[in-house]
Amino acid sequence: MSKCFQVDSDNGRRWDMKSRKMKNNYTPVLLFIIKLMLGITFIYASYHKIADPAGFAKILYGYEIFPGSSINILAITVPFVELVAGFSLILGLFPRSAVLIINALLSGFILIIGFNLLRGHQFDCGCFVFSSENQTASNIYLLIRDFLMLASGIYFLRNTTAS
Fold first, then answer.
1. What is the 3-state secondary structure (H, E, C) of 38-88?
2. Average pLDDT over residues 153-161
């Protein structure tokens, strides 16, 4: 009989199921670091957008994706969603929900940045500080950064339990 079909007599689980546990001694520390990193990043990112909604609206307009009627609404709501999700994650108030919101935002950012890169559009990210210069070369790094943060958020969701 192959080993993958043998059953452990102690707990009745198959041998191959025992090896699928991903948690180790570093998981709680890593989850704490992810929580702080994502929370602080989104709180910091919301600061300039809240302080200058008109500037953020210009950034959104520069993407040339959004309908004109939605730009002001997005310029006002997105920063507050980032702020609330960041604080919620750091304070431990519905952390899984906060990470789900952050992951949804990151997915949207990835799609928007990727779409603009594919069409060769010059744009300012508007992520943290607004700049007057368009930095297309560094926008590829934005995608990499956002994918890494999204992977961190997915790891957080997979290794925490709903409470």
1. HHHHHHHHHHHHHHCHHHHHHHHHHCCCCCHHHHHHHHHHHHHHHHHHHHH
2. 93
